[in-house]
What does this fold into?
Amino acid sequence: QVQLVETGGGSVQAGGSLRLSCAASGYTYSTRSKMGWFRQAPGKEREGVATIYIHGGSTYYTDSVKGRFTISQDNAKNTVYLQMNSLKPEDTAMYYCAAGYGGSWYSFSNFDYWGQGTQVTVSS
It folds into this structure.
């Protein structure tokens, strides 16, 4: 059974930090070329936040988080992380981890395994 389990969400004040983790299991990790973090705020579309390619470690970020968020991985643990610093109220959303292959780094249609999400709330 494929599982992507996100942890680390919570409530913080603006300027604070959180570290999200996503542990993958139930499939051969290397069969997916990339791991991504997406977020969805109420009333908004799901957007790609950051993606890391499993082989080689290339990373991509949406413009609004560049310089504040860092995606990383521990392939030995089948785990990907999202370090979020200098959080802003507009970062408030449900954050999802996903695994995929092919296509663009930011399009959710290119990711076929998804976690249940973890809530991040940033207060001003």
Summary: The chain has no helices and eleven strands. The mean pLDDT is 96.
